[in-house]
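From the thread on structure requests for the teaching lab: each student submitted one protein with a one-line request. Submission from student K.M.:

"Model UPF0301 protein LHA26_15510 from Sphingomonas morindae, tokens only."
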Amino acid sequence: MDAPRFFTGQLLLAMPGIGDPRFDHAVIALCVHDENGALGIGIGRHADGVTLHTLMAQLGIDPGVAPDSPIFVGGPVEPNRGFVVHSRDWGGESSVDVAGRWMLTSTLDVLRAIAEGRGPSRWLAALGYAGWGEGQLDDEIRRNGWFNAEGDPALLFDAPVEQRWRRGFTAAGIDPRLLASSAGTA
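Reply posted by the TA:
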């Protein structure tokens, strides 16, 4: 059976036993998924010792009214590249609408807008991204590495970080305590 394709605007939840410690209990906001591959932003773990203010200082941006929020580990690819996943009430020239659920911006204009108090009402900033080549994510889903969950903006922006993985499964009617870390063979 082929895995469903083009989950843009959904959340990917790492299944137990995914086999890559970087993705243990990972929650990924899937932003792009097409025939060329996929790109998502990790929203399940904060980067140690990095906050919005320290990031803005490194970029020469006065933090202004921006809260000193933690920065997320967006993924292992290009860990020095920044992304902001945000509500649809703000958009810059390079912002991408993600399936009508949220926006993704990777340019400094969103950070400046947040600092000036005219940015999106809800947002999270991340360094790096999770990326998959052509067909790679589909294959990982077929092998039960990922669970596709509803891309609920409340889960994305409002749920406590340490509860997002569990809440994603629970919202789908799955008790994550019952998930096996390995699959059998028939």
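TA comment: The chain is about 20% helix and 30% strand. The radius of gyration is 17 Å.
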